[in-house]
Amino acid sequence: MFNKLTLLAVTLLVTLQSVAAFNVIVPAGERRCFFETLEKNDNIHLTFQVGEGGHLDVDFWITDPNETLVDDATKGASGTFHHEAKINGKYEYCFSNAFSTVTDKTVGFNVFIAKPYKPDPTHKADPLEADIRELAAGIQEIRNEQEYTLARERTHRNTAESTNSRVVWWSLFQSGILFLVCVFQITYLKRFFEVKRVV
């Protein structure tokens, strides 16, 4: 029983340590690139969400160590990418805001590197291990969904606050115009009904 609990704890710790969540600001006309060193048959899972800036879109791509394009997305607001490494080396993934000349973009992304499971031939297969691996994969999916939900909530909150600010300023502008029209009408009508006396 102790060995199974230890195995569960180690598996969860290893899984949680291999997950990374980041936020990065991509200035207008620039790109931000990151690297992951993978071994053959490693799986990289990457999700991203543009949280702030412009039309909430960036260009994205992944290249292998030979600089061959693995996957890409043009002007995407969010995306999920999975790739199994075919060769050892540094895999580069980039977020580009080159098409924008004014607006910076804030991008939140999660990276998860999954090492392939290599069974130990001397170790007897345990059904609990398979359940633990399945649980760890489920936990990773939940974490990705939470990050995505947080990014969407931040985007919606910013949109609501911006709309609220515009409504307030528009209301103040309309109130000012109404006040000026009232003053003008009162003054004009007052002059219209004035009795002019000739001395």
TrEMBL record:
> Which keywords has UniProt assigned to this entry?
Membrane, Signal, Transmembrane, Transmembrane helix
Q: Which SMART domains match?
A: EMP24_GP25L
Intracellular or extracellular location(s):
Endomembrane system; Membrane
Q: Which residues form the signal peptide?
A: 1-21
Residues spanning the membrane: 167-189
Q: Which SUPFAM superfamilies does the record cross-reference, listed alphabetically?
A: Supernatant protein factor (SPF), C-terminal domain
Provide the Gene Ontology terms for cellular component: endomembrane system; membrane
Has keyword rRNA processing?
no
Question: What PROSITE patterns does the database record attribute to this sequence?
Answer: GOLD (PS50866)
Q: Which InterPro entries does the UniProt record give?
A: Emp24-like, GOLD_dom, GOLD_dom_sf
Q: Which residues form the GOLD domain?
A: 31-113
Membrane topology is: Single-pass membrane protein; Single-pass type I membrane protein
Q: Does the keyword Transmembrane apply?
A: yes
Q: Which family does it belong to?
A: Belongs to the EMP24/GP25L family.
* Cited PANTHER family: TRANSMEMBRANE EMP24 DOMAIN-CONTAINING PROTEIN
Descriptive protein name: P24 complex component
What is the organism of origin for this protein?
Answer: Linnemannia hyalina
Q: What is the lineage of its organism?
A: Eukaryota, Fungi, Fungi incertae sedis, Mucoromycota, Mortierellomycotina
Gene designation per UniProt: EMP24_2
